[in-house]
Design brief:
300 residues; alpha/beta; Rossmann fold; N-(1-d-carboxylethyl)-l-norvaline Dehydrogenase, domain 2; 2 domains; three-stranded mixed sheet; 9 strands; oxidoreductase activity; oxidoreductase; NAD(P)-bd_dom_sf; HIBADH-related; signal
């Protein structure tokens, strides 16, 4: 088995907040990195650090033994893989393509089949959890679907960006797990928002209430982090509300596709629709706390 290890030539496509941080960690790990993004400006820091700019996804894919993608949504992944000058036009047989995007599970599985049939390359779906801080620190959790041997070969690439790796099954399995993850985050955030609104209306100090709840069974990542942001009003985007809306739409679709009774998913998805429609789509998803407070007759 030929492991993709430094200083192998690799590529990274999609240099948003998450992708740029992940690509930087791939370069720091010692890989020879080529990068591509729709707008070149986001690649400037990576180029200054030694990465090579590729004018198209196909150019980035040529000669790369592993290719990372981090893109906004399903159509973006399809375009980068199979559009004009896409990855499929340049990728070699045996290459491992890793899609860190959060997209729909069924298309993810279809993309993997198509890339293998047309080019002999393996596509792993590996949505991540951990947010911008995890991307920056290289501590992301990766939920992986696809060929197990391809995952084993690309393990050093994964280790450059994350800390926890779980291979969940065939193509699309990682995306199903990520849909479950986002549902739980959104539903918990709604419950936390309601709890904080209750405390405020009853005259409790919100930060004292949060501290009390962190000491018991209600303790969670959302209570520890998102609740603090809601209380302090520090809602500049780490993860934008409009992206969480996209993800809860995916969660709702996954539940429907598998015939799951999912009232929590339905409610969380509708609340994210309401949040974005209230004009807060560019704020952090924790701004859900502001919407719940507003609907509860609270100011600020």
């Amino acid at each position: 088995m030929n492991t993709v290890s430094p200083p192998a030539r690799v590529a990274f496509l999609g240099l948003g907040v998450m992708g740029a941080a992940m690509a930087a960690n791939v370069a720091r790990a010692g890989f020879a990195l080529a990068v591509h993004n729709r707008s070149r400006g986001k690649a400037e820091a990576l180029e200054a650090a030694g990465a090579t700019w590729a004018a198209t996804p196909a150019e980035a894919a040529r000669g790369a033994s592993a290719i990372g993608l981090c893109l906004p949504d399903t159509p973006d992944v399809e375009a980068v893989l199979f559009g004009a000058d896409g990855v499929a036009a340049g990728v070699a047989p045996g290459t491992v393509v890793i899609d860190f995007s959060t997209i729909a599970a069924a298309p993810a599985a279809g993309f993997a089949r198509r890339l293998l049939e047309e080019r002999g390359a393996h596509l792993l779906d590996s949505p991540v959890s951990g947010g911008p801080a995890g991307a920056r620190d290289g501590t992301l959790t990766c939920m992986i679907g696809g060929d197990a041997e391809a995952f084993a070969r690309a393990r050093p690439f994964f280790e450059a960006v994350g800390r926890t790796f779980t291979h969940l099954g065939p193509p699309g399995a990682g995306q199903v797990c990520k849909s479950a993850n986002q549902l739980m985050v959104a539903a918990t955030m709604l419950a936390v928002s309601e709890a904080l609104a209750l405390g405020r209306k009853a005259g409790l100090d919100p930060m004292a209430m949060r501290q009390a709840l962190l000491g018991g069974s209600a303790k969670s990542f959302v209570m520890e982090n998102h609740a603090k942001r809601i209380i302090e009003g520090t809602l500049q985007p780490g993860f934008r509300a409009e992206l969480m809306r996209k993800d809860t739409r995916l969660s709702l679709a996954a539940m429907r596709d598998h015939g799951v009774f999912a009232p929590s998913t339905a409610l969380a998805a509708q609340m994210m629709e309401a949040l974005v429609n209230s004009g807060r789509g560019g704020m952090d998803s924790a701004s859900l706390g502001l919407l719940v407070a507003e609907l509860s007759g609270l100011e600020g």
